[in-house]
Amino acid sequence: MAKKTLVEKEYTVEDKLSTLYQLQIMLTEIDKIKTLRGELPLEVQDLEDEIAGLETRLINYQTDIKEYDASVITQRNKIQDSTSLIERYKSQLDNVRNNREFDNLSKEIEFQGLEIEFCEKKTRELANAIDNKKKEIAHLSETLEGRKADLLQKRSELEEIVSETKQEEEKLREKAKKLESVIEPRLLTAFKRIRKGARNGLAIVYIQRDACGGCFNKIPPQKQMDIKLRKKVIVCEYCGRIMIDPELAGVEV
User: Fold this and answer.
1) DSSP secondary structure letters along 77-145
2) Residues 41-68, mean pLDDT to the nearest whole number
3) pTM greater than the 0.90 cutoff
4) What is the rounded CA–CA span in Å between residue 83 and residue 79?
5) Which domains occur in the chain, in start order?
């Protein structure tokens, strides 16, 4: 363990920069694999979310129909009750003793008749609502089946691409993990932060035509000399990327 610590202490800036650049190469290759997959993972997720929403809506529609059916039964029971009351009140009309009783019974018969009319109207409205909801369910079911077919196709495409690139990606990730293990945590954190903020994912770049290889702003001669000396980590004052000389990157100029 002490020997390993000693090696880490002797790890030069040049070694750090070289290792960072190798790590950048690994991560760029992984990015290319992700690009190959394109928008498929997001499309699959969107379809899964949409299908979940459609299935929830379908369940809600079916629940609505059950509630409408229960309401229809309630209205029919009310009609039966009102019909029975009308028959009873009509039979009582033959035995009334005065006009007051006759008027009261007549009003009750009229009221129950209105109740029947209201319940029948309500029943028709519920029947229409049930019919409309069934049409919506049919349309929704058709849409749902279409989305499920789309999801099956997208998943198949994604699985095919993943299966073709999985082994290569795993190898790259393993190499990247080994490189990360020998980079000091603070430098690695800074590298990942820069990479995350960079549009093309490049956190470390080499000088190209006296300019930063990331943002292409000119680098003063003295700073170029400092970069070539490899004595300290130097970042671009414009884009914040770490800069190295082409020779360290293995590039001929």
Assistant:
1) HHHHHHHHHHHHHHHHHTT--SHHHHHHHHHHHHHHHHHHHHHHHHHHHHHHHHHHHHHHHHHHHHHHH
2) 96
3) no
4) 6
5) 2-36+184-249 (1.10.287.1490), 40-172 (1.10.287)
